[in-house]
Amino acid sequence: MSAELQISDLRKVFPTGKPAVDGVSFTVAAGEIVVLLGPSGCGKTTTLRCVAGLEHPTGGEISLGGDLVSAPGKGVLVPPRLRNVGMVFQSYAVWPHMTVRQNVAYPLRTRKMSRPAMEAAVAEALELVDLAAYADRPVTQLSGGQMQRVALARSMVYAPRLLLLDEPLSNLDAQLRLRLRDDLRRIIKKAGLTALYVTHDQAEAVVLGDRIGVMQGGKLRQLASPEAIYNRPADLFVAEFTGATNLIRGTLRRREGDYGEIEAPNGQVVRAWMPDSGVVGGAVTLALRPENVRLGVAEGEANRFQAVVRDMRYQGTQTIYELELLGARIETLELGTAARHPVGSEVAVSLPPALTWAYALGV
Ligand SMILES: Nc1ncnc2c1ncn2[C@@H]1O[C@H](COP(=O)(O)OP(=O)(O)O)[C@@H](O)[C@H]1O
Ligand SMILES: [Mg+2]
């Protein structure tokens, strides 16, 4: 049944190039969904394949439900089929000559189950992915989204201890992707499975994960709840990768607890949350999400500045503004069908200190 996954100091170095996975440690609690998020090439798939046993790690330890399944230092390497792990990949990987039911039943054939037990497990898995009505259809008659649900049912039918999913939605068209994204979390939770899910898509990570681990260059930068990743990014990479696209260079003038006072290019001082220590007088980068720049604000708020609208893009349900602020160019957006700030106008802006972040170290 559903088990805890523990990874400690995992390393994988391929004969060519620098480490693909470079000292990654984390735990996925039983029944939890952890999403590894990061750009292409950051080591997500390699981490997943090490957990599945498809890749031989160079170092570190992996345990599943308290059983050591991989520890090169101790000569332990449990083969994939003995790990009892389910996998869903980007490609649909269904058997085209079989029906939906036959596809889902396939993994049970080698598992010595009685026929009634097998039929019950298949029916339950099909019910879970909402394909009971399609059981006797050839899979080739299904849509991409339905085929991916078959693949999901097939990977869950034998009640694996852990479900691994590698960008399972990336071959689907945009609309299907959104629908199945919401379904996936519900299905995995209903089955009570522990899951490790890999994607480069931040929206997918937020919707699916109980926690998100942001990876870069083979390293795990931050592992936290979606709210913490979005509101308390631990470093500049995490901030930028999850959408803090406004970056302003400044100088740290004063430090006070978790906050810093940063001098902007135009000499104005901004109060910002600052997770790393930084040196007074040293260079820092301010990072701001467009959604966190507040337009037309009331008196008395902290970090209140005047900005000039330099450009705007009306998008119907929202407007993107390019502002001159603090001696830099930044983007912000205004929800609603009315664009209230014409190009050239002055506008009051506030930057909530808790949502204005400063980092001493670059990406
Ligand atoms: N079989 C392999 N041989 C050599 N290098 C590999 C192999 N598989 C992956 N890599 C390299 O390891 C790094 C991480 O790859 P991968 O885990 O596939 O990243 P991601 O899934 O995040 O896109 C990349 O630099 C990639 O080129
Ligand atoms: Mg990959």
Topology summary:
Layout: E1 5-12, E2 21-28, E3 33-37, H1 44-52, E4 59-64, E5 67-71, E6 76-77, E7 85-88, H2 100-109, H3 115-128, H4 144-156, E8 162-166, H5 174-191, E9 195-199, H6 202-208, E10 211-216, E11 219-224, H7 226-231, H8 236-241, E12 246-256, E13 259-263, E14 269-273, E15 283-288, E16 294-295, E17 304-314, E18 318-325, E19 328-335, E20 346-350, E21 357-359
Parallel strand pairs: 3-9, 3-10, 7-8, 8-9
Antiparallel strand pairs: 1-2, 1-4, 4-5, 5-6, 10-11, 12-13, 12-15, 13-14, 15-21, 16-20, 17-18, 17-20, 18-19
Helix pairs in contact: 2-3, 2-4, 3-4, 4-5
Adenosine-5'-diphosphate binds at residues 14, 16-17, 20, 38, 40-46.
Structural commentary:
With 363 residues, the chain is α+β, with helices and mostly antiparallel strands. It is 23% helix and 34% strand. The protein contains eight helices and 21 strands. The chain starts with a strand and ends with a strand. 39% of the residues are buried. The structure holds adenosine-5'-diphosphate and magnesium ion. Adenosine-5'-diphosphate binds next to helix 1.
